[in-house]
Amino acid sequence: MDFQHRAGGKTGSGGVASSSESNRDRRERLRQLALETIDINKDPYFMKNHLGSYECKLCLTLHNNEGSYLAHTQGKKHQTNLARRAAKEAKEAPAQPAPEKVKVEVKKFVKIGRPGYKVTKQRDPEIGQQSLLFQIDYPEIAEGIGPRHRFMSAYEQRIEPPDRRWQYLLFAAEPYETIAFKVPSREIDKAETRFWTHWNRETKQFFLQFHFKMEKALVAPPGQAPSLGVKRPPSLITGLAPHPHSDSMPPPPPGGMHGMPPGAPMPPHMPPPGALPPHLRPPLPMDG
Q1: Which part of the chain is the Matrin-type domain (predicted)?
Q2: What is the DSSP letter of 195?
Q3: 193 DSSP 8-state letter
Q4: Which of 63, 80, 171, 176 has the fewest CB atoms nearer than 10 Å to its CB?
């Protein structure tokens, strides 16, 4: 007879658990889980009476220990009563008005056209730093509004194909249209004396001047030939007359030069003896 697979057939083996034992084991597992995750002291419906047992004030049930109460809180009855209580409180609670959003008034202006402007290119006479001076006229500017400006990258605008060699300087003031100037995409000098703005309220003119940062000049290393456009130092030998051009030289005599047969090659040009100092003149036959 096979006692191995029969309930209670083998000494030391457990039989099939009954429904009551399964429920008890389930409640124990729920109690252990609830004790780890739930603080029973913060439950508003938990109450300990004078007899030492525990009560659920929401469901009006009695429990012998904390584990039983925690198992009850995970049950269907307690969860249904919680949903009913929440629905009742939401229905009886007065409707609270929603917080008012801060409304920002959008100023609407009718555009009247583009303002007049004047652009002046300048260069510092001492250091050669380049700058631009903008003068924008706003004779009909709205009251309480001042002109605004900002630099825009070529990749922010959608009017022209982006080109990283250029950037845009924008000027805006209501009710005029926003205007932009295309300037080289070079670094701007933001020093106090190199970047300034001024708004003249009497003449309704806005001025802005900025300087480009100086680019470092490349210095040629020693021993390298100077670049084009650099004047060379004059010759150290003085007193020599410049050689005349071959077109200005007189033709040789028909019989050739003295002491040379006709048809012989011409010697290299020599300056006349009178043009050389005495110690540099070549000896002549007649001088012995």
Answers
A1: 54-84
A2: E
A3: T
A4: 80
3-state secondary structure of 182: strand
Pairing relationship of beta strands 195-200 and 54-56 according to DSSP bridges:
unpaired
* Distance separating alpha carbons of residues 151 and 126, to the nearest angstrom: 28
Q: The pTM is what?
A: 0.41
Name every residue whose Cβ is closer than 8 Å to that of residue 195 and which is 6 or more positions away in sequence: 188, 189, 209, 210, 211
Rounded Cα distance between 138 and 202, Å, is 11
Model confidence at 267, pLDDT cuts 50, 70, 90, reads low
Contacts 24+ apart (CB under 8 A), 42-45: 43/73
- Partners of 137 in the β-ladder: 116, 205
Tallying the residues shown for the chain, one arrives at 288
Cα torsion 271, 274, 275, 277 to 10°: value is: 120
The 3-class SS string of 59-103 reads CCEEECCHHHHHHHHCCHHHHHHHHHHHHHHHHHCCCCCCCCCCC
